[in-house]
Design a protein that fits this description.
alpha/beta, 5-stranded mixed sheet, 3 helices
Amino acid sequence: MRVRRLRKRTAELEVTAFINVIVVLVPFLLSTAVFTRLSVLELSLPAQSSAVEQIKVNDLKLEIQIRPDALLVGDRIGGLIQRIPMVNGQHDIAALGPLVQMIKGKFPDTTTATILAQPDTSYELLVQVMDAVREFKPPMVKGQPVTGAPPAMLLFPDISIGDAPVAVAQKK
């Protein structure tokens, strides 16, 4: 008896459509990856201390509280240094910079600061305060620093953020 064998054709893989998708997808992904930029500020939460802090005479624990009506700059141990009221309905970030520079001049070895904000504080205001506390940038005119202006310098780069204490309403 004669055996008949079926001739099987080898299956061909059709990859043309897949190659077309890859040709379009790869340049698109590469072009969007170039424009994506991620900025990260390293922050740390204030340490929760159970023991009484060792109070040093020349130790500064800088705190900036963002209140709805003012910025309160103070020392956690020594108390309020200065209250910066709002100007034209906005927090006066321009007045915060020179004050922080003056404090840095008195405590050059201190690099930490704590910013305490209320829950309804805008993100933009929080970032502006952080920038003013972290570093000083000299004023620029046409891309060049103003003559006689102090050079750029780091002030308090190690920033911690937290919740501001609840303000007690005054009775009238």
